[in-house]
Design brief:
The chain is an alpha+beta fold. Strand 6 and strand 7 form a beta hairpin. The radius of gyration is 69 Å and the shape is elongated. This is Fibronectin type-III domain-containing protein.
């Protein structure tokens, strides 16, 4: 019977109440430090309950319940983060819940309804930390540098924080812009600085960008400093101009160069010319003197290393005399002597100076000439040797070999140095020839040899001894005259090879 009464009472309540609902929409996400209020209508004139669940679905702190008859504006807390207020009891009960988002209630769930069966809820979602902006390269001005970055599009963004640190200072700049201009002072010189940027959310959280490091310093020295004399006077009392030119330092200066100082000394007075270009024309330089010119680069942090160059001012070289034309005449009294008289008629025809050969070209021409001369000399020597060799071969081939052998056999050395020595003829040639040819050839050779030496003829009444082989073989000895002052040996060869010895005043022996 009691159970029936409970069911009937619940049925009557459902007939008289509506559905619970939030009167303002739930937020998709809640930023840190943001205060949020939700208003809930229970749908019942008798009861309204608030409950909070943590990330694990468990009830956080105690629940709050309002009923008809409670005083309006009653305040009740749920833990330390939530506060509820009763704002209406006429018709249906209405109440609010307020909280300030902190990181520890992230993903909590707020529930509202007439009981724990029929409920509506809103989630508390806190976004993550904002991504770091993308920093752009630093740009340097003459007195400052500019740091810029990409904008942040996060829901909970509040501002940017720029951090500049070094070994001597640590400075933080806060801005809502996407760039920052930072002045440069001399305290920056030769010190490494680090720059970074972060996008800060409502909870003060941020992530720093990649760090950019740089070292501000005074400029380096200029390069390729050149001094060029532009005019060449003929009078030592004149002054000339020079052009000074140079290149920028090899590495870019941070901060950039603001000017160059060109310094030189004229008449014991130092001249300083500031310029922002890399060339300058200077004047007042005297002929015969040596001048030193210096150039230095300057920026807001100071002056760079000085670069020096020297130049000697010289006179112009006198041009060679220009002869427009010449005439040649022959004098009868001075035969063979040519005199040239230059024509004084001015000529307006432009002349072209001959091109000058370089030292390398002249050396090449000399080497080629010497090589050609050596080649011609070698060819001539080879030709002469070949010609002499050919001539000797032709001469040898014109004399028969038999005559040469016979002549060698018949040649007699007529010597007056010793009266008692007899020189024997050389041996006969080994090669045999015919008797007729032998007799003819040898006889001709003997005649030629005798004619060349002019032997004296034997006197009249000279006795001839029989010197045949028979008498020689029998042992018969023949006496010679005691006077043998001149002794000449002749040879006469017959077909039968007979030998005769002739005695006379000259005592010649013939074989």
């Amino acid at each position: 019977m009691k159970l029936v009464l409970i069911l009937f009472f619940s049925y009557i309540l459902n007939l008289v109440r509506g559905e619970p609902r939030f009167l303002n929409p739930c937020l998709d996400s809640v930023c840190l430090s943001q205060t949020v209020t939700y208003k809930c209508e229970s749908g019942s004139p008798f009861l309204l309950r608030w409950r909070v669940l943590d990330t694990n679905g468990r009830q956080y702190a105690l629940t709050v319940a309002y009923i008809d008859g409670n005083s309006i504006s009653r305040i009740d807390p749920i833990g330390n983060e939530f506060t509820t207020v009763l704002i209406n009891t006429t018709g249906v009960i209405v109440s609010t819940i307020t909280f300030t988002a902190v990181i520890n209630i992230n993903n909590y769930l707020i529930e509202c309804g007439p009981d724990f069966i029929t409920l509506v809820n809103c989630s508390i979602v806190i976004p993550d930390i904002l991504p770091a902006p993308v920093a752009n390269p630093l740009t340097f001005g003459s007195t400052h540098f500019t740091f810029s970055w990409s904008p942040s599009t996060g829901q909970c963004f509040t501002n940017y924080t720029v951090s500049i640190t070094s070994s001597v200072s640590n400075v933080t700049y806060v801005t809502n812009d996407t760039s920052l201009v930072i002045p440069i002072s001399k305290s920056f010189n030769d010190t490494e600085y680090s720059v970074s940027i972060g996008a800060v959310d409502t909870g003060g959280r941020y992530m720093s960008s990649a760090v950019i490091r740089f070292i501000p310093n005074a400029p380096l020295s200029v390069t390729n400093l050149m001094l060029t004399q532009t005019d060449y006077p003929t009078d030592t009392n004149e002054t000339v101009n020079i052009i000074v030119s140079w290149n920028e330092p090899q590495s870019s200066s941070r901060p950039p160069i603001t000017q160059y100082n060109v310094k030189y000394n004229i008449s014991n007075g130092l001249q300083i010319i500031p310029t922002n270009v890399t060339s300058q024309t200077l004047s007042g330089f005297s002929v015969g003197l040596v001048y030193t010119v210096s150039v230095e680069a300057v920026n807001v942090l100071g002056t760079g290393t000085v670069t020096l160059a020297t130049i000697t001012i010289v006179l112009a070289s006198p041009p060679p005399p220009e002869i427009s034309s010449t005439s040649t005449s022959m004098s009868p009294s001075n035969s063979g002597i040519i005199s040239s008289t230059p024509s004084m008629t001015p000529s307006n025809t432009p002349t072209q100076e001959p091109s000058r050969l370089s030292a390398g070209a002249i050396a090449g021409i000399v080497i080629v000439t010497i090589g050609l001369a050596l080649a011609v000399s070698v060819i001539l020597v080879i030709a002469i040797v070949c010609y002499v060799k050919k001539k000797n071969e032709d001469t040898k081939s014109s004399v028969p070999p038999q005559m040469i052998e016979a002549y060698n056999y018949a040649q007699v050395d007529y010597s007056a140095k010793s009266s008692s020595s007899t020189i024997q003829a050389p041996p006969k040639p080994a090669k045999a020839i015919s008797p007729e040819a032998d007799n003819h050839v040898l006889y001709s050779a003997i005649q030629k040899s005798a004619a060349s030496h002019n032997p004296p003829p034997p006197p009249e009444g000279t006795e001839y001894a029989d010197l045949d082989h028979n008498s020689s073989s029998s042992g018969r000895r023949h006496q010679r005259p005691k006077d043998t002052s001149n002794q000449v040996t002749y040879s006469h060869v017959t077909h039968h090879h007979d030998r005769r010895r002739v005695r006379g005043s000259n005592h010649g022996n013939y074989y």
